[in-house]
Amino acid sequence: MQLQQRMRASAHTTASKTSRRPLLCRAQAAATTPKVNINWDNLGFGLQDVAQTMYVAEWSPEKGWDKGALKPYGPLHMMPSAQVLNYGQSVFEGMKAQRSAKGNIVLFRPDRNAARCAAGAERLSMPPLPTEQFVQAVADTVRANADYIPPIGKGSLYLRPLLLGSGPILGLGPAPSYTFTVFGAAVGAYFKGGQLTPIDLIVEEHFHRAAPGGMGGTKAAGNYSPVLVTQLAAKKNNYADVVYLDAKTDTYLEEVSSCNIFVRSGKTIKTPPLSGTILPGVTRASIIELARSRGYEVLEEPVAVTDAMEADEVFTTGTAVVVCSVGSLTYRGNKRAFTAEGQAGSTALELYTALTQLQTEQAEDPFGWVYKC
After folding, report:
1. CA–centroid distance for 338 within its chain
2. What value does the CA radius of gyration of the chain take, rounded to a whole number of Å?
3. How many other C-beta atoms are found inside a 10 Å radius of the C-beta of residue 213?
4. Which band of pLDDT confidence, cut at 50, 70 and 90, is reported for residue 192?
5. 331 — phi, psi (to 5°)?
6. Cα 113 to the chain's mean position, in Å?
7. Catalytic sites, residue numbers
8. Average pLDDT over residues 99-107
9. How many CB atoms lie within 10 A of CB 119?
């Protein structure tokens, strides 16, 4: 809580001293009505409504990170020999800005995203961005693109902070220079059926997402394209996505391609532990705390796929998906349905409602998670 207050103070102090863009105060933000020509009732999850302003900062060994600046959304300049294009030195984050019931523009736990980005940078031998600069960069980008934030309940401005080794290099090694950028787009539900429509998942039995001692716990760009071969195959068979098993025994659930997974039996909720092979999701951590505050026993421990097939309910969490009910899980040809057709599971719906109401200031925030831009 103290860290958030310090960052907010730093963000507003820095904003008042800079002339690179006008600062929207909260009262102005509350009065702002989106003026861009977007059909808010038909938002998908993509770049159809990309915001027109992005943030860019550069790092060099002589100067470290510069102050960064807002620029029109467009290409980043780099050579074909850029480290990221050859050796994949890159981490990213996913965040959302939303309009709240109190007329504010809000982010959700940006300090956690900053910390995860810094941890990923250290893992990939990149210079981490200071927390205050990360949060300020995101807030600046949000305010500059306020018109792209949908009306409350219609979606969000999805934000993509991206740190990459942009400097040229031939032999394997850290980049000589780095770029940090933040861009965004107005989005709706991540999965095709809609925000609360249950999804059908299949357990992947051949490929693994990560292995012990590897990169599974880092939000590195290179972790994501390898899942496409299984994800695309699953979608051809009418599944929304796949669930990966642990690489050692093929026994325990790890995570879905881009979100964490939870299993409920009675009042006990289990989710795989952070052992280095799954991503430490911000939504995952928040749901654990939120569920415990609502009387659930939440255990972070290995979840056998056979136990998941016998559970009362399964759901996934992530910034993009929020909380998504799993309608069915298929394993070795056996399909287990958890919900009635088109109906979200009771606990997934309860936690989704509690989380989104907190995020949009429709309910009190006893945890201090909401950050007002």
Report:
1. 26
2. 21
3. 8
4. low
5. -140, 120
6. 8
7. 219
8. 97
9. 16
